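Q: For a teaching session next week I want to show students how multiple molecules come together into a single three-dimensional assembly. I've collected the sequence lines for a complex. Could you give me the predicted structure tokens for the whole thing so I can convert them for display?
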Amino acid sequence: MTYTTDVQTIFKALDLAPPEHNPTGLAVCTPIDASLLARVAVSTQAQVDAAITRAHTRYLSWRDVPAPKRGELVRAFGEAVRRHKEPLGRLITLETGKIVQEGLGEVQEVVDICEFAVGLSRQLYGLSIASERPEHKLLETWHPLGVVGIISAFNFPMAVFAWNAALALVCGNTLVWKPSEKTPLSALALNGLLLQTAQAQGLDVAGLSELVIGDRLVGQTLVSHPQVRLVSATGSTAMGRAVGVACASLFKRSLLELGGNNAAIVGPSANLALVVRGVAFAAAGTAGQRCTSLRRLIVHRTIYAPLMTALVRVFERLPVGDPLISGTLVGPLIDQRAFDAMQRSLEQARQSGAQAHFGSREEVGDAAAFYVRPAIVEMATQSGPMLQETFAPILYVVPYDSFDEAIALNNAVGHGLSSAVFTQDLREAEVFTSARGSDCGIANVNIGTSGAEIGGAFGGEKETGGGRESGSDAWKAYMRRATNTINYGATLPLAQGIKFEV
Ligand code: UN1
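A: Of course. Below is the structure for the complete assembly, covering every listed component.
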């Protein structure tokens, strides 16, 4: 395979210089056949420090640019991404192994959030509040934070950056981005397009959006550096715990978007044909490597047998293979570690008496790549590996008898990202989305757990970290709020009626 040439073609299509080959640099391999895509330079500590300093300096002038003007950069960036959707999507497929349709879908998320942020650039509204004092005005105003550090994961190598970057930029912040070590090429391409766009607008690009490549030490620098005011981190709960605790001890803001152990409840009234499609996309799509992937299916006992029969039939025929080939629905796992973790979980489940269907390796192309047939594991109770997130396509299934029991099962795990109910019963749908229903950041009805639109706030509770990115009012996390009291009178009445005569 000549993926290296492909990478060059892609960068050429983007009108960007291809990443310089660095013989001792970080090896970037494609999970498609484990071949080398490139070797890219890793940032030294001095380079990371310098990048943060540049971003801070750039922030000092960027914050003075009117927000709708800042939005013009984001609009042009979104347009550039839309024009280059195909090569960008292809690069995502090369680096992550996700199928072409999903690579393109991810690029579309970048375009969508840019459009959202452009509108937002004219809507960074504050409040005007009734003052208790005469001739006083009470206001709430929103201001940028400074440098925003972005730590992103391999599975969404462009969209996660964009959710953060598009909002953070219109809010008046500058960026330092540490992508996953598995996907630096997607980052080089996307950040390259952003800077190219800024340059075309005559903007000073130094410090606007700095890319730093490296391991956890780079992340630690973002966390500990006093000029980084917010760290937005997407990845494992272990990583998020380290980032969150370190940020808290410095009174620095963190925005955490961590894992998920997402469930769907299937009620007795559900439309089973719709359930099968929804479950297949959510559980097997992206080879189970979304933080929103469906990992647990909680099925009413009366429909358990027919649903299992239908799901097993679909999973046994899922086209597993080269994600570049149209028709493939399940590409490879990212690496051997992911494969080993999957096999360990399956083994643990089998040892506890569960019945596992599929889940073993499929021969596709080179032996060094890790393709699997997504697994379905029938559990008698929700226990063992079903309580943990395994970042691989394993769908655990348990039966339930009462709806309250199903909700309790949905909520009985550490994570709280996404959830769904499949039902035609209005009462079940309403209870699931009510205060005593799902405890997750996302609670859907008659769709799967994954594939959220950018318009809503995205994130989850408990071990998912509590952060919200993307739509709704998530922008507020990228700004600081100031309360302003303005006296336009000639006397000085004190609040709470306090008398203090001098
Ligand atoms: C992730 O897996 O980190 O809702 C993000 C979804 C996508 C984002 C997933 N829009 O599945």
